[in-house]
Amino acid sequence: MRMKSLAIIAALALSTAIAGCSTIGGQMFSNDYGAVTDAGYQLPRIPIEKVPSKYHRQEVSYDSKEKPGTIIVDTQNKFLYFVEGDGRAIRYGIGVGREGFEWHGTAHIAIKREWPTWTPPSQMIKRQPELAKFAGGMDPGLKNPLGARAMYLFNKGGDMGYRLHGSPEWNSIGKAMSSGCIRLMNQDVIDLYNRAEVGAKVIVL
Hints:
- Belongs to the YkuD family.
- This protein is α+β, with helices and mostly antiparallel strands.
- It contains three helices and 13 strands.
- A nine-stranded mixed β-sheet has the order 3-6-5-4-13-8-9-10-12, covered by helices on one side. The chain has a two-stranded antiparallel ribbon with strand order 1-2. A two-stranded parallel ribbon has the order 7-11.
- The longest helix is centred in the first third of the chain and has 18 residues.
């Protein structure tokens, strides 16, 4: 009887491991980066095997006094945490602002948009005149720098100009390359978008 019980326990452990790769904190979602059809757009598969595993979406142990639904951005380590509560969070790999474009502070999500239009700020157009053709906005699509989703960050002064957004440049995750926005892989930003609510607090460390 005891041998039978041990066999059942072993089988359950094996099935759990197969269902989702586990990490010290919880589940990894490395299998969630396949091709996706979304709102008529065909997002290509991300070659996730080329992305360091620490940047794969995963549930982790994370102690925070912030309430569930809060987003905490660790720019130094290139992680974004969606606080679940009870010492848990969903962690995403991110790309952050390059040298000279770093920032920190507290904001909130004021607007959420699926397949957003991208309008480069006037300062960006001054730095990169070739972007002037998009002064009226770049249509949504697979090459749009905001990717499949964007969440617009506001503070007491209004629109900060910063976004949490998707990116077709999956190889920029874990790097400092943006103009201050926080970028995620498209499959990850869709997941975060579905979790985060308008009004959610965003803390950038």
